[in-house]
Amino acid sequence: MLEIIKQPWPWYVAGVLIGLTVPALLLVGNKSFGVSSSLRHICAACLPAKIPFFSYNWKKEIWNLFFVAGILIGGFVGAQLLSNPEPLQIAESTRTQLAALGVQDFSGLMPNDIFGVDQIFSLKGLIFMVIGGFMVGFGTRYAGGCTSGHAIMGLSNLQLPSLIATISFMIGGFISTWILLPYIFKLIA
Amino acid sequence: MIGIVEKEEFVVENPMECEAPNEQVENESVSGNLKYLVLGVLFGIVFVKAEIISWFRIQEMFRLSSFHMYGVIGTAVIVGAISVSLIKKFNIKTLAGEKVAFHPKTFNKGQIYGGLIFGLGWAITGACPGPLFAQIGSGFLAVIVTLLSAIAGTWVYGKFKYSFPH
Fold first, then answer.
1. Cα(B111)–Cα(A93) distance, rounded to whole angstroms?
2. What pTM, to 2 d.p., does this model score?
3. Three-class DSSP category at B67
4. Pick from B6, B4, B17: which is nearest to A54 by CA?
5. A167-185 confidence digits (pLDDT tens)
6. Using CA atoms, how far apart are residues B84 and A21, in angstroms rounded to an integer?
7. Are the C-beta atoms of A42 and B151 separated by less than 8 Å?
8. Other C-beta atoms lying within 10 Å of the C-beta of residue B76
9. Inter-chain contact B125–A133, Cβ cutoff 8 Å?
């Protein structure tokens, strides 16, 4: 059993489990599934600065912070206790394209030559962590949700605005992958 | 856990705008909130085990060289949609016996502009907000910088919200 759990889980297992998070949160405590709102609660709790957008009763939404703390712990459990001993299988075409761009480390879930701790204070860190992260936080709040709130919760509830948001996420991702990344990799080379 | 005096200090600007709202009427204690920690742990394990937190899986998705992420998100939406329709059809109540609250979303241009900006960042960082937490937990400590920057991005949006087209 543990052997099966340690292997990478197929998409249909992960998809069903993530989909079940929607009714689980609704039925356990009348909570709508969403993760990016946790970033807003952190702002509201730590630095509201009298900004109306952050002046609300974040304590009422504290479940969301418990949820993301759980995700962090789950990440630890998944990686430390249930980790797959085999190297990551990456689609050949993606691997070839990324290698051509200059990615060198294909051993783990993230390339260490970009996301290693020693890259934090480099140009790579500035682009892939600081600027990239800023766009994730700014963009999700501007859009009113992320992959969980819009693409999963919103689409599950058949909301057209969530479909529009999801399509926008995907278009942004394609532009970034095919147009921005080649420039970025030239810049950091 | 929220005192009446504390409640009065806060003015909820627009509760509908809190995108993943708590609709439970009954108050929950800190220990009551541990339920969501447990759900988060399970969710985080799925993230790692299905390799959704991998920068490479996100790249495969945007390079159309793997079905994996499309399968995950597609299946999740189908399972979520069936669940939501069953809850509505049979009026299934929460554990506390309350009616489940759903939130119709209203369209604004932010969903397009913000969505595009998030998409750009998604392909660069290889993470949406959920996987950011799981990446840190799984040992990619540099992602703490990404998370802090994402919090900064959220703050800047909140600060200048009314200057942006919606």
1. 32
2. 0.93
3. coil
4. B17
5. 999 999 999 999 999 999 9
6. 11
7. yes
8. 29
9. yes
Euclidean distance between CA atoms B1 and B136, whole angstroms: 29
Q: Could you count the other beta carbons within 10 Å of the beta carbon of residue A75? A: 30
Bridge partner list, B93: B99
Q: What is the ipTM of this complex?
A: 0.96
CB contact under 8 A, A144 and B143: no
Burial profile A32-47: b = 16 or more Cβ within 10 angstroms, e = fewer? bbbbbbbbbbbbbeee
Q: How far is A68 from chain B (nearest CA, A)?
A: 6
CB atoms within 10 A of CB A188: 18
Q: Which residue reads 């889980």 in tokens?
A: A9
pLDDT digits (tens, 9 = 90+) for A72-116: 999 999 999 888 888 889 999 999 999 999 999 999 999 999 999
Outline where DSSP puts E strands in chain A: none
CB-based contact A49:B159 (threshold 8 Å): yes
The C-alpha atoms of residue B145 and residue B153 are separated, in whole angstroms, by: 12
- Cα–Cα distance for residue pair B57/B69, rounded to 1 Å: 7
Residue type at position B12: V
Cα four-point dihedral sign B122, B128, A147, A80: positive
The answer to whether the CB atoms of B20 and A177 lie below 8 A apart is no
d(CA B109, CA B78): 26
